[in-house]
Amino acid sequence: MSTVAESTSTVITRSALIDGLTERAKRGAIIATIETRTDPRLKKANPFGPNVIKHSLVNCVINWRYEGAVNRQREREGTEATFEASPRAWGERFGPFVIHKGKFYVEARVLRAECDYQLPNGSPVRYEDIKPYLPGRQSSAESQGVEKEIIVRDYAVENIVGLTVDGTRYDVVDDIVEPVAAEQVAMTAAESHDLFAACVGA
């Protein structure tokens, strides 16, 4: 999987990420790249075991309007802009986030995504080998009334390990860190929030 080139890198906590994006969202949509590490939830009958890691790099838009995006796509395809979004099946919106059972999720429009898979020891797993065991995904194109689907994904903040906005790379860490990791965090959560909000607002 290709990597993203960033001019600078800053370590921030997950709380700082939430605070910074919430503040920045007051000024409109945010173009970003989100990096996550997640459990791909393979089918039980798979030869790789239960601990495969999915590493994703997603170019996306945060703090956007789903209904408006679908209707603009319908217009581009020569269809009337009459789409009305249904209420979310779960969670409550809070700025650019969705909160569900006390957890924060970034609701993002996916523009482009890449991913790879690894075993716990770091060994890569080829997509061709793992594909038969991945869960299926149903397209929303038909319900949106479009040929080119507007893809929506919810990314749990706890699974985000990196965020790139306006050329700045943010390495995202837990709020409670081990002593060695804590030394790498040059600023407090409040200080990193201030820097983060300033950078994404540039």
Question: Can you put this structure into words, describing what you see?
Answer:
There is one protein chain. The chain contains 6 helices and 10 strands; from the N terminus they run E-H-E-E-H-E-E-E-E-H-H-E-E-E-H-H. By secondary structure, the protein is an alpha+beta fold. The chain has one domain. Strands 1, 2, 3, 4, 5, 6, 7, 8, 9 and 10 form a 10-stranded mixed beta sheet that branches. Strand 9 and strand 10 form a beta hairpin. The chain is globular and about 50 Å long. The two termini are 29 Å apart.
Strand-residue proportion: 25-35%
The level of helicity is 10-25%
Task: Tell me the total number of β-strands.
Answer: 10
Parts with pLDDT < 50 across at least 5 consecutive residues: 1-6, 179-183, 185-190, 195-202
| Helical segment count | 6
- Give the integer mean of the pLDDT values: 86
Rg over CA atoms, rounded to whole Å, is 18 Å
Sheet with most strands: 10 strands, mixed
Count of distinct structural domains: 1
- Summing up helix and strand content along with how strands pair, one would put the structural category as alpha+beta
SSE order, as H and E?
Answer: EHEEHEEEEHHEEEHH
Provide the descriptors you would attach to this structure in a database record.
202 residues, 10-stranded mixed sheet, alpha+beta, disordered C terminus, disordered N terminus
